[in-house]
Amino acid sequence: MKYQDEYRDPELAERIVSAINKKSRTPVRFMEVCGTHTVAIFRSGLKELLRETITLISGPGCPVCVTSPEDIDRAIKLCREPDVTVATFGDLMRVPGSESSLHQEKARGADVRMVYASMDALELARKHQDRRIVMIGIGFETTVPTIAAAVYQAQQEGLDNFLVFSAHKLLPPALDALLAGEEVRIDGFICPGHVTTIIGTEPYQEVVDRYGKPCAISGFEPVDILQSIDMLVSQIEEQRCEVEIQYARAVHSEGNPKARQLMEEVFEQTDGLWRGLGSLPQSGLKLRGKYRTHAAESHYDLTVPPTDEMPGCRCGEVLRGVCTPPECALFREHCNPTNPYGPCMVSTEGTCAAYFKYHLE
Predict the structure, then answer these.
(1) What mean pLDDT do residues 216-244 have?
(2) How far apart, in Å, are the Cα atoms of 192 and each of 49, 80, 84, 140, 341?
(3) 361 pLDDT exceeds 60?
(4) How far apart are CA 361 and CA 356, in angstroms?
(5) By the number of CB atoms within 10 A of the CB, which of 2, 10, 287, 315 ranks highest?
(6) Is residue 91 within 8 Å of 67, Cβ to Cβ?
(7) Among candidate residues 262, 330, 274, the one with its CA nearest the CA of residue 33
(8) First CA to last CA across the chain, in angstroms?
């Protein structure tokens, strides 16, 4: 795997850092909108290598973190149904709702299963046809095709007991909301390579055209991220504004047409409720009419009251890039990975967890 060695080459990283620092003259603030990028930036110490003109800020790129408290409460409500087995990805287990979490409900006897893929949940439906298996669908466009494939397969097999509660989020509307809100200055985006392998570059072009902010589609190794920062700095200094693909070994401008076709076959866009950003038009997904029998809300009342952030928790502001975790009074002493108070500390991709693990100040 030559490319892996290349993109972890410390000498290459040093050369790119030197090039960035020589050309960077204009003070800029770049937002990475992927939790995997956030962790890689901290783990590799990239912030400390860049000159003071470059500030990196973390955005709403952790799918567990942006899941709204109301959707957590809906998942909890589902697992309290006597005939339901809830299947979920691991990080969501400990995210607090208004009064409980899936982890606490499991400890009280609810049938909550941690799965690694949507097909694991489908296999549960095959084995336990006397129960309804509800997959909690979270994640951005990267994971949506896998959930769509499971729903499609369930319908082909006549597995009516396989249901999905869709709390999926679409990334481009979040970028639009961040820029339209003007709450924090963002001069460019480091965009996630895995999402872009699915959706292609066109959605980012709309951000570039509307707001004049450059985007670089980045891989996940330190050299990938540094090359993406170099692209953004070059655009700023040369007064250009484009969507550039750094992660060319995986990303194509058209994305993955087959994956998008499957997504569009099974899901349709709807308004999405985000932690920290509120309700964003056309930023969520729901099952289309043909597949509505597999929607959890078609079988259960998922009405829950509106829920505020927990007192003192600033996860919403962290997700918008308004503040850093150390600016939260709960950080480290009252909120830590052993005793997480908010989702940004729960998820391994959360900004608070990354600060706690890698940031010594």
Answers:
(1) 97
(2) 21, 36, 34, 10, 27
(3) no
(4) 9
(5) 315
(6) no
(7) 274
(8) 36
Map residue 232 onto helix, strand or coil: helix
Q: Using the structure block, give the residue that is written with the tokens 């001069």.
A: 187
Strands 215-218 and 188-192, by their bridges, are parallel
Q: Are 71 and 84 in contact (CB under 8 A)?
A: no
- The tokens for 145 are 């095709």
- The overall average pLDDT reported for the chain is 94
The DSSP bridge partners found for residue 208 are: none
Residue 4 has pLDDT above 70, yes or no: no
Closest listed residue to residue 225, CA positions, set 270, 261, 200, 189: 189
Report the DSSP pairing between strands 28-32 and 84-88: unpaired
Q: How many residues does the chain have?
A: 361
Residue at 301: amino acid letter? D
Domains in the chain, CATH or no CATH each: 2-60+173-245 (3.40.50.11750), 64-170+256-296 (3.40.50.11740), 315-358 (no CATH)
CA dihedral (273, 279, 283, 289) in degrees, to 10, reads 70
